[in-house]
Amino acid sequence: MAAPSLTGATLPLQSLKSQAEKELSECLDSMRGKKALVLDPSISGPLGLITEKQLLKDKGVERTYHLSKGNLDTDQRQILYIVRADIPSMKIIADQIHAHIKENMTKEYKVLLVPRKSIICERVLEEEGVYGNVSLGEFAMDLIPVEEDVLSMEMPMSFRECFLEQDRTSMYYVARAIMKMQAAFGGIPVVRGKGVCSKAVMDLLIRMKRESGYQELPGEQMIDELVMIDRNVDMVTPMLTQLTYEGLIDEVFRINNGIAEVDPSMVAAQQQGQAPKRVKVALNSNDKVFQDLRDSNFSIVGTGLKKRALLLQQVEQERHKLQGQGVSEIKDYVKRLKEMNIQQEKSLLSLHTNMASEIGKTVRDPTFNRRLEAEQSMLLGRDSKVMDFVEEHIYKQEPFLKYVDSAAMFLSRF
Fold first, then answer.
1. ∠ at Cα 101 (36, 85), nearest 5°?
2. For the residues 334-356, what does the mean pLDDT come to?
């Protein structure tokens, strides 16, 4: 299961997850019967954190597709789109509807826009001549519990919209999400912010409270303080190389919505005879090995894995000492086995040992160390090593993604 359990969360985040799942269920019920579900690729991951595939099946979803250019080949008469409220998505949907009409197919279309309907999207559908063929709705996918202590709004383009395109629409969504949090966890007595966008959100919160007649009742606050910081206050930190175990997994394998894709050989349990392909691995608080090591510097990860392996070996060896022991000792041992879940522990240790070994190859690469030296040099005010590092990759015609962080970090100084 990709979604974290949330049982150890400081706040009752399960209530937010349940509410999001209920809203999704209502959206699916808005088109009753069997249907095809078409998802924006950037939405399918977050949806996996709030619901299970079984819900989709129970609501009549026969097959799920990712929104992409080209014809949508499906036998289902009803098609439900859940997509971002942007112009490119509307044009793709319009092209697919036109293709069905051209082939004399009779279909019913419903489009749910995330996070809400927009006039621009309606206008694009009108200009494309398909507005009368679709039923428009919205799905406010705003607060996604990514971890026990992390909520994400999953708006990857918000920085570009706010600071490059000067479109502050996403600030409204942030303010609306904070109001939703206050409705669930009580009013937040202290709100601080740094940056133009933070100030805009604070102003929107004041206006929303006034217009909705929101009143904070004493004794119901679960959050003492809210701090908002604009991304452009610190543009350097996200460009630096991550050195924690979780950070290096992201550097090497990439983590998206708590999922990393690894080589099948790294996973202990494999089915024989299958063609090699990437295997998805959930990385969250459900994985106790990952939970213990995720924030550790990579230099001590090997020691941490060795300690867990020795503990596991010790527990297994205790089994041979049970001969002649009383019933109570045997019960205690069995209870300990259940708490540890030996088989799962073995699988997780094997997985993380293999991942750490692969990360070790990257860390020992001279290019990786030169990148670290260049970053430290820039932080100390000496930019020459950063430019040398970037120019070296350009001369070697390396993929741009290998040095884009270093180049962006250098340019952020101007």
1. 55
2. 81
Report the distance separating Cα 164 and Cα 139, nearest Å: 26
d(CA 63, CA 57): 9
Between strands 144-147 and 134-138, the pairing is unpaired
Contacts (Cβ under 8 Å, ≥6 apart) of 152: 46, 143, 144, 146
> Is the CB of residue 233 less than 8 Å from the CB of residue 194?
yes
Please give the DSSP secondary-structure letter assigned to residue 242.
P
- Tokens 């949330």 locate to 6
How far apart are alpha carbons 105 and 133 in whole angstroms?
Answer: 12
Give the pTM: 0.85
Distance CA 254, CA 297 (A): 18
For residues 68 and 236, what is the distance between their CA atoms, to the nearest angstrom? 34
pLDDT of residue 71 exceeding 90, the answer is yes
pLDDT at res. 7: 82
DSSP 179-221: HHHHHHH---SEEEEESHHHHHHHHHHHHHHHHHT--PPTT--
Centre a 10 Å sphere on the Cβ of residue 370 and count the other Cβ atoms it contains. Answer: 14
**pLDDT value of residue 246:** 97
Token pair recorded at residue 398? 């390396």
Label residue 406 by pLDDT band (50, 70, 90): confident
Query: Which residues, other chains included, contact 251 with Cβ-Cβ below 8 Å and sequence gap of 6+?
Result: 241, 242, 359, 362
What pLDDT does 402 receive? 77
- Averaged pLDDT of the chain: 88
Helix axes 366-379, 384-395, angle to 10 degrees: 150
* Residue 270, pLDDT above cutoff 60: no
The dihedral built from the CA positions of residue 296, 300, 302 and 305, taken in this order, carries a sign that is negative
Give CA separation, 395 vs 335, 399, 401, in Å: 61, 11, 15
Task: Break the chain down into helix, strand, coil percent, rounded to 5.
Answer: 55, 15, 30
Q: From the CB of residue 264, how many other CB atoms can be counted at a distance below 10 Å?
A: 13
Answer yes or no: are the C-beta atoms of 298 and 246 closer than 8 Å: no
- What is the separation of C-alpha 336 from the centre of its chain, rounded to a whole number of angstroms? 34
